[in-house]
Task: inverse folding
């Protein structure tokens, strides 16, 4: 098929293509990591980078690379308040109110994972992103945002709070991985209605 004089060149080309193909496998294809956070064992995608928690209220924090032209990475925060942290509906309302009412899209669902039952808020719109120290309560309106936030009840331990926030495209791309984080299945979730 190829003249013998070109065979070494052809073999070199094949080797270059093979190496290039291996290098082009994205970090997203790498095997997820099991990470222990408090009483939880989270299944974290390899391309989500662990970061030093920004304050003492956070057990863990991760940075998720932006996708689809988004400029900033998303952030996952895991918190635990000794089994308390307020009621489910109170926390859902607090998260909902972090988005401006105009154009806000809200969906709340419930489900179970191997670690316990959970309620999840899926929010889209203009997020009032906290800036500066939490005690100052300053925010910056950030349109085109999305949040996935879950209250996971671990039997005998209490509620863990996991909140993923960022640009809508990046969070949408991370939607399935967020469920996998706690070994939950989006297909088994049911709508959750907040109590009046």
Result:
């Amino acid at each position: 098929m190829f003249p013998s004089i070109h065979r070494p060149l052809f073999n070199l080309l094949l080797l270059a293509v093979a190496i290039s193909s291996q290098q082009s496998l994205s970090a997203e294809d790498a095997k997820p990591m099991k990470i222990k956070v408090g009483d939880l064992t989270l299944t974290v995608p390899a391309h989500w980078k662990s970061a030093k928690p920004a304050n003492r209220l956070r057990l863990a924090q991760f940075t998720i690379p932006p996708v689809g032209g988004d400029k900033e990475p998303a952030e996952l925060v895991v918190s635990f308040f000794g089994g308390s942290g307020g009621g489910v509906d109170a926390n859902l309302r607090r998260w909902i109110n972090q988005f401006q009412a105009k154009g806000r899209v809200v969906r709340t669902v419930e489900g179970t994972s191997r670690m316990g039952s959970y309620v999840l808020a899926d929010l889209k719109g203009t997020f009032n992103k906290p800036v500066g120290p939490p005690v100052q309560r300053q925010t910056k309106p950030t349109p085109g945002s999305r949040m996935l936030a879950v209250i996971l009840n671990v039997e005998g331990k209490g509620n863990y709070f996991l909140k993923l926030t960022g640009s809508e495209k990046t969070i949408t791309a991370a939607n399935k991985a967020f469920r996998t984080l706690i070994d939950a299945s989006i297909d088994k979730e049911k709508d959750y209605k907040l109590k009046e």
Summary: The beta strands are 33-37, 40-44, 49-51, 58-64, 74-80, 105-113, 116-131, 138-154, 158-167, 190-191. Confidence is low (pLDDT under 50) at residues 1-5, 9-25. The longest strand covers residues 138-154. Residues 7-24 form the longest helix (18 residues).
